[in-house]
Design a protein that fits this description.
214 residues, alpha/beta, 9 helices, 7 strands
């Protein structure tokens, strides 16, 4: 697909998910995908190398959770990898303060470089392995703590909970639905606030997003 076709795919796919992108945001997201594939030739960032699949399975999948992040004010992206979903969400919501954390230095190097290339302000990328101690780690508490397939809920939820700001919530992006997400929430001292199923607009791949709060 050429760039014009990719742009149309991005814009149309976003509308299918209930998201209306500006032309500027679409341009930034396509630049993100170009940089991702360029870096990927040297640094292992993604197994997806087809530009059309990057648009759907990385960009659109990230944007699909905008309802769960709306109004959060700040976001902590745990195990961000190549900046997903944090950077696409930042592009769509420029006012969102985003902190992206990953234990792999090369991935954080990419996140810093691409955020600068896109001209994004209010983005902090941190090379660190989270241990559930935000004050000791120098990390902010956030209105939304997000992960995209970082770990099973029984691992992710108790790790994420200490990073919540007052009134904040945890957003877990899931492929297949776990057997009992509410039970995992209870074990972490949280409760399940919502659960939503969505499908990616072109492949029809099924996804779920769950929200948990204290």
């Amino acid at each position: 697909m050429d760039n014009k076709a990719l742009r149309r795919s991005l814009l149309d796919g976003a509308v299918t998910l209930g998201v209306t992108l500006s032309e500027q945001a679409a341009g930034q997201l396509l630049r993100f995908s170009e940089e991702l594939l360029r870096w990927n030739a040297k640094v292992n960032l993604t197994a997806i190398t087809d530009p059309a699949e990057v648009v759907e399975k990385h960009l659109l999948d990230s944007l699909a959770i905008t309802p769960e992040v709306a109004g959060a004010g700040s976001l902590l992206d745990v195990g961000t990898g190549a900046g997903l979903p944090g950077l696409p969400l930042k592009v769509f919501q420029p006012e969102l303060a985003v902190t992206l954390v990953d234990s792999v230095a090369k991935k954080i190097g990419f996140v810093k470089a691409v955020a600068a290339a896109l001209g994004l302000k209010g983005v902090t990328a941190v090379h660190q392995r989270l241990a559930g101690h935000p004050d000791q780690e120098g990390l902010p508490r956030a209105g939304a703590v997000v992960s995209r397939a970082f770990a099973e809920l029984d691992v992710f939820l108790p790790l994420a909970a200490p990073y919540l700001a007052e009134g904040g919530h945890v957003v877990a992006m899931l492929g297949k639905l776990p057997a009992d997400p509410s039970a995992a929430a209870e074990r972490a001292g949280l409760h399940q606030r919502s659960l939503r199923r969505y499908t990616l607009p072109f492949s029809g791949a099924e996804r779920h997003v769950a929200v948990f709060a204290r």
